[in-house]
């Protein structure tokens, strides 16, 4: 873990950063869902957005700075399925995964982001 959720550089760091120097580190879906966007962003780099319905509550996960995305818009994914490989694309300072969870839909202000550690043990 290289960076936690919360204030960073006078603004909200809406996710956590996890680094691993090994080659071809897979990034997996945290649970079943549907890929709503898989593309290249100038800030997130290669990024995958997945929507999940967990007990009637919608969550959106964001996996960013990937070396490669292995899923496309509209794909169904299952828990543990590889969605890409950890990388250093976009506005990034070394190989890592930037991971966000949003309660509801993702929005530009990231107003409904939550600390991923509430939901997932790392």
Automatic annotation (TrEMBL):
It comes from the Bacteria. Residues 12-110 form the M23ase beta-sheet core domain. Its EC number is 3.4.-.-. Pfam families: Peptidase_M23. Keywords: Hydrolase. Gene3D superfamilies: Glucose Permease (Domain IIA). One of its GO terms (molecular function) is hydrolase activity. Coiled coil: none annotated. This is M23 family metallopeptidase. The lineage of its organism: Bacteria, Bacillati, Bacillota, Bacilli, Bacillales.
